Amino acid sequence: MDTKPIGVDYSELHNLDSPVNRLLRDSIWDRKDDIGQQSFTTLRYMDDLIGRLGITEDTHILDVGAGTGGPAVYIANATGCRVTGIEINEVGVQVSTSLIGNAGLSDRVKVIQGDASQLPFEDESFDMAISLNVMNVFEDKEQVMRGVYRVLRPGGTWAFLSGTFQLGPEDAAAREHLRRGYLIPQYYDSLEEYKAKLRAAGFSIDEALEFIADFWVQVSRWRDAHRKHREVLIEDVGQDTTDYHIAYFDTYVSLIEQGKAANHLIVSHRPGGGRTDTPV
After folding, report:
1. What superfamily in CATH does domain 10-269 come from?
2. How is the beta sheet containing 109-113 ordered, strand by strand?
3. Predicted TM-score of the model (pTM)
4. N or C: lower Cβ tally within 10 Å for the chain?
């Protein structure tokens, strides 16, 4: 039995350009849809986000948990906006810096290394903040949200895409699988819990859009890729870690099929700036 850790930071498990990681990505994403995302985020989500939030060349966006910078580059290229990303992992910052340079967007996009729970930006620095399938890694989500509130200008938008869960006492085993996460530990919330934390942080909630069918497809692709390349993955990260990851995705798929898990885009804003606020 191997002794490699389960639930560690992805930068400790995989070089993002490694042959093993490439095998996984080729099974999960069509090449045209692979922009370096380490999540369930699809181009459909980002295209919807761009239109729904009204991102323009005048928008300065904070990307919370920017990962390898693929989504930031995609959005900036599509809209002409400026994006500043924050990412805690050195590997993610290194890859994003290379990606940004290769895209010719160094004048409009940057990713810095830092902790999103302690945002190193001045008050009211951004027009908008986004986060794409990253919020579940934060144990204290309200602290992250309060930081986002601080760095947004009055009237600024805070929109994040995140898995949401409705788990009961009968889901103890599933809850444990999810808590240990895929590559880093996870802390899951229901939609109502997210709404409560947003209100506590001072935000006014605008809308919540639920994704189900294509979310199931993406999670299933991650599971199937791990099954397909199980033997190669065992050589790379060990049998315990590989089989745990397969079980993690099995659990995720099952919960979606039971109607207990989905992916939600939750849009809110910091009151002020001439925007109409609601009590929801």
Report:
1. Vaccinia Virus protein VP39 (3.40.50.150)
2. 109-113, 82-87, 60-64, 126-132, 152-165, 261-269, 204-211
3. 0.90
4. N
